[in-house]
Amino acid sequence: MKLKGITDVFFDLDHTLWDFDKNSALTFQKIFKTNQIIVSFDAFIAEYIPINEYYWKLFREGKVEKEALRFGRLNDAFKAVNHAVEAETIHKLSEDYITYLSSFNYLFENTFEILKYLQTNYNLHIITNGFDKVQQKKLVNSNIHNFFKTVTNSEMVGVKKPDPKIFNYAMQIANCNEQQSVMIGDNFEADILGAQAVGMEAIYFNKADINQRNNLNRVNNLIELKLFL
């Protein structure tokens, strides 16, 4: 069902347009080789993904700072696979990870197609909890930065999704209101509940086809946004 009255479409970036898991895995392959880390890669990634999600939840809730997130997720993942790594090496890996992450820029299927389709009728924007410099590099290096009129990140606002302030700030600089706006993202708590709390429409991008939720605008592939917009 088409959403009515929408003029401005806000996207999350990681896990919604930018394929974080794939790009992250490629980054780890590179930095493990560079730093001569010998570990079962598949086992490490299997542990790292949920640990990373846990640390980002803590970060959204203000329970850890940026540096603690970056160190903790690596330290805990190595512990989970019983691979001893010195703190100095983890700090080095953390820095290398941020350096090289944006050099890999796989996007989800149909990202370019849906952005080209939407930009003819809507103003497009980004709202992300990611860090300013890293997120900007991702947008530029993946060649999607020109689609977006504004980019709002948690560092510039001082709060993270789902805090209402970041959504209201994003709408303010986009010169629109909640009745004109829709948020598209993969995180139910941060993107969907956060947007709905300020009166925005929301579309849940759930690529893995899990966590079925009733009475929710939902897509499994970005091209399905044509059903709503």
Briefly characterize the structure.
The chain has 229 residues and is an alpha/beta fold. It contains 9 helices and 6 strands; from the N terminus they run E-H-H-H-H-H-E-H-E-H-H-E-H-E-E.
Q: Which consecutive residue ranges, at least 5 long each, have pLDDT under 50?
A: none
What share of the residues lie within helices? Answer: 40-55%
H/E order of the elements?
A: EHHHHHEHEHHEHEE
CATH architecture of the largest domain, by name, is 3-Layer(aba) Sandwich
CATH superfamily of the largest domain: HAD superfamily/HAD-like
Q: Which CATH class of the largest domain? A: Alpha Beta
Largest sheet: 6 strands, parallel
How many structural units, i.e. domains?
2
Strand order of the largest sheet: 3-2-1-4-5-6
What's the mean pLDDT score? 94
CATH domain fold name of the largest domain: Rossmann fold
Total DSSP E strands: 6
How far is it from the N-terminal to the C-terminal residue, by CA?
9 Å
Number of distinct helices: 9
Rg measurement, Å: 18 Å
What global shape is seen?
Answer: elongated
Strand coverage percent: 5-15%
User: Which structural class should the secondary elements be placed in?
Assistant: alpha/beta
Protein name: Haloacid dehalogenase
GO molecular function, one term: 5'-nucleotidase activity
Pfam family, one: HAD_2
